[in-house]
Design goal:
There is one protein chain. The protein is built from two helices and six strands. With 143 residues, the protein is an alpha+beta fold. A four-stranded antiparallel β-sheet has the order 3-4-5-6, with no helix packed on it. A two-stranded antiparallel sheet has the order 1-2. The longest helix has 30 residues.
Length: 143
Amino acid sequence: IQLVRVGQPNRMQLLTQILAFSLLVGLAACFPQFVPVAQIANIRTGELIDVNNENLDVNGCLVGPSGERVCPLGAFGSDGQSRVQFRGNKGPGLTGSNGNAGPLSQAGLPIDPAAETYKKQIEQYQKWAEQQVKNAERQLGTA
């Protein structure tokens, strides 16, 4: 006959609870955590930006000494208005920037129009050079 105490967990339940607790503590410890070590004051807006030891803010943006930010989605000026992104660029006030970004590819990435034109010129030149070789073969064959 085995006696079971009512209201007290058995050893298996205790072991399961301890294991679950240690698993939670271990998971919490391995998540990346933002630990601010300094603050950078934005010279234009006065905003205090918390940064870690690599000058990254909580969003993963590199913060410059004046408060400008370089982020995965674009660069943002310290004036709080200037930004450079794939779409919707806006320059500093009174500069005439219309906010239009450069052309985008079908994948939504920026492209260089001059480089695209150069690629087309190269293709046309290669076609021309191949035609010249064919013409020369034809002329040598009949001469």
